[in-house]
Each structure stands twice: as C-alpha cells, then as structure tokens.
Specification:
elongated, 25 strands, alpha+beta, 8-stranded antiparallel beta sheet, 41% helix, Jelly Rolls, 9 helices, 579 residues, 3 domains, 7-stranded antiparallel beta sheet
Amino acid sequence: MTTHPFLRGLVGVSLGLVLLALPLAAAAADWAHKKKLGFDTTASGSEIKEEVAQLPVLVRLHSGNFTFSQAKPDGADLRFFAADGKTALKHHIENFDATNELANVWVSFPKLAANAKSDSMVMAWGNDKATSTSDAKTVYDASQILLLHFADADGVKDSTANANHAKASSAKPLAAGPIGSAVVFDGAARIELPASATLKISAAGGFTFSTWLKPVGAETASLFSLGGARGLNLGLSAGKLTASLGASNASAAAATRPAVWQHLAVVAEGGKVRFYLDGVESGSGALALTDLAGEAVIGEGLRGELDELTLAGTARSGAYVLALAASQAADTPMMAFAEEGGGGEEISYFAILIGSVTLDGWIVIGLLAVMAVVSGWVMVTKSMLLASSKKANNAFLDLFKDKATALLSPGHAEIASAEADPRLKKSSIYRLYVVGLRELSKRFDEQALAQQPHRLRAAGLDAIRASLDAANLRENQRLNSGIVLLTIAISGGPFLGLLGTVVGVMITFAAIAAAGDVNVNAIAPGIAAALVATVAGLAVAIPALFGYNWLASQIKNVSSDAQVFLDEFVTKSAELHTD
C-alpha cells in the first residue's frame, strides 16, 4: 500500500518528537522530589485576557515553599518540567542562598493560556549526580536585546547572549532589591553601555522597555537613553513616565509612587508609545520611532533604586507586560505551589491538550461533535425502529403461519382482528400484507359487481406481485433513510480531523518561526493539540462504522424476511384463489 508523502512526513515528525522526549522522560524519574507550580490567569489570580508565549517566569524559593536541605547547596540539581513532568524547561538561577534559604530562578514558560487555571509546571530536585543546567542565555527569546539582573559581583552584566555588559557604573549595589540584588542611584551615578551590533532598535520592530523602580520622590530623570542627546530617552518628569525622540514627546497619565517598588514598562510601535505601571496601561502618545543605535546610559540624574532592567527589540502585547509584572511580584496570585505529595504530582494530560487547542482546531472539533451527535441519533433511532419492527414482524408471521387461509380471504373476521391488534402497527411485513390484501379485495369486488366467481388469473397475480414489490421497495427506503449520514461520518470524519491536524501543525510551526526559538517545549503542546482533531475524527468514524455494519445486517434480515413473505403471500393466494 502506498502512503501519501505528507502522511509519511507527519509520522516522521511525530516519531522524532517522541524520540526527543524519551531521554527527558527517563531523566525526570531520577529526582527524589517534585512539586507542582500552577498558574491562574483568571479574575481570581492575575486576569490575563490574551495568550502569552515564551514568558520568562520568576520562581521565588524560600523556606515556606522549598526545603533547601534536600537540594545541592548551589541548586545545581534544580530542574523544571512542563505539566507532563517530563518535558524539560530552560531555566536560569539568578541567586541561590541555601544558608538564608532564598533563591530566585527564571524559567522559560512556552505558552501561558488566557483566562485559565490549566497551565502548570513541575519543579524537581534531589539528585546527587545532577550537574547544573542553568543558562541565562537560553531563557529569553531572540528579540531580547538587554537584560540586567544587577546580581553579578564583578560589574553590571547582560544576561542575554548579546553580552551588552556595562563599560562603566557608578551606581551602588543593593543586596535587598525586589528580585535579589539591585542598584542605587544618588542623582550623580549612572551606568554606561558601549555601542554594539546588537544594542539597537529598529523602527519596524518597535521596542519594549521594562524595569522595577523605587524612586526617592517625584523624580525628573532619565531611566534609559540610546543614541546620544538626539536619540531615544525614557525617563521620568515629575514622577511620570516619559518617552522622547527628537521632536516627539509623550507622557504617562499617572505618576510613580515615592519609596515604593513598582514595575514600569514602555512599549513603542507604529508611531505610538504606551506606558504601563504594574502591568496596567497608564496612558499613551505619539512617538515617531526611527532606527537607533549607539551607546546607552542608565539612571542619568536618578535618585532611587533600580532592578531587573530589560530591553526587547519588539513591541510586547499588553497581556505580556501584565504577565511579566504579575509573575515577578512578590506573593503574586498568578502562581502558587501545590502541596507536595510523595515524590511527584498527578498530571492532567487532558487539560494540557485541551488548553493547547487553537481556534481552528475547536472549529473542526465542533463540526465533528455535530457529526457525532447526528450519527449517534441515527444509530439510536434506527436501532429502536428495527427492534420494534422485528418484534412486530415476528408476531404477524406467527399469526399468518397459523391463519393464512383466513387472512387471505377478504372479509374474514380474522382480518378485522389483525387490524385491531396494536402490536402489528409497527410491522413492515404487516404493511406489505395490507397492500396485497387490498389488491385481492379490489379484484374480488370487481368480480362481484360483474357477478363472477372470486378467482385470480396469472395477470392478476403478476399485478399483485408488482404492487407488493413497489411497497417493499418503499419499506426498504424507509428502513435505510438516514443511513447515509453514517457513511458521511465514516468517510468524512477522519478527513475532517486530518484537516484540523494539518492546519494546527502549520500554525504551530508558523508561531515557532515568528518567535525565532525552536525547542521541544514550543513544538510539543501545539503538535499534541493538533493531533486532538485527528483523534476526534476517528472517535466519530469508528462508532459510526460499527453502527453502520450492525444496522446494515439488521436491515438485510428484515428485508429478507419481507421478501420471503412476499413469495409466500403470492404462492398461497394463487393456491387459494386460482383454478
């Protein structure tokens, strides 16, 4: 049998993913302790109304949610997995202090669903043989230009692969920031970043700037500038976030609060800039963005504390900014550890699959659900019809066997008795008998008017047989009505499901191409969800196939009984009413 090239390719991709996941699945079993971290993006947590992809999530560990004595002193055995407990997630340990039992770990979460509580990941630890897999360069997506944790002892270092490290810094380190270490500016301090091939912003892509800030008062200062005096400047004016570039100036609607840590973000795209305070949009304005590059300066004239400064060469969505701010906040309602139970957590694979199904997949599944309901209705109603018809047919055939002569004699009392029997109303053979008896009565009535004896000729028998055949054909049509819906489900269900899978796979790979990051964490949920459509198609077709074959055999039995009766009716009529 020849297999279509696309199907061979799809099978190859699936097998490749399975083989890729096997070492991860085997490795997950080597950890003595596991704990589930759930996400709540509904109104009861942090209400996020759009899906967010490739989110760097901050996991705060302390004595209340983590037993440091069970892990290695430097956290080298820490691992993070997707909800299945097997697919490894990339992570980066910013700091791990086993003595004071405090740690901050960044995890790359592939996709955070909107308005849902279905997403989760599993943290594992407790493996003496494990070596550290912490790598800051793999946690952030390709559009991340700059990320400063301010946690390095040997200067201000960029945690991305771009290595946009500071060339000079007069800001003082602060041990107790909102996320580990931070820096303090006294109005004269500043951080300088040298020009580089990656430290640039394009007008087409836009940018996203974010940081945690604790100002002394209603400050007027520069938080971040790029491209010199006539370049981009993101700062504060009397405590309000501002953005300026050349003649373009825009300002936030609300001011920052003095002496309070708060998350700030500025997003620019399409000639417009948006300002965010703690993940909530706080005004917007026009900003004629141009391609920018050169040296960057942080904290010029600022009095206050700064932590977790980021710059991305793309305009993040409002949902992304909110998820970023919410996930980094202390005691966030967006994330919570479940109680530890034994050595692992029960994973809901069904929830993972359903949560990853895209809109096109739901459309296909909806159509298949309609087909399933229709085919189920056909199978149930036809089964009931055939069961009642078969029971009534048996009752009539028993009666006809015992009283054939009386029932084939028009005007006999047994005919009236049979007509009054409610059991026979559902009999298809009885309806054929009524047609044949009507033809007999018609001819006998005509002979009575002509004062002729009641007799059947060969031509009359042929006419009766023709009427019976026509009636039998209509009965067969009645029995087979709706069966075509089962054949549609059998043949159309798998193809419709395959269509949903193909479109889902296309969307998954398109999203990966747009994100610029290829890994199993990004591929696996989309592929798995896409295959749900094929499973749904088979789930519709398989019951319909079994139901169709069973109903076809039952209809054939009823039709065979009817055909035997027709022959018996004509034969016995000829025997009784011919010379």
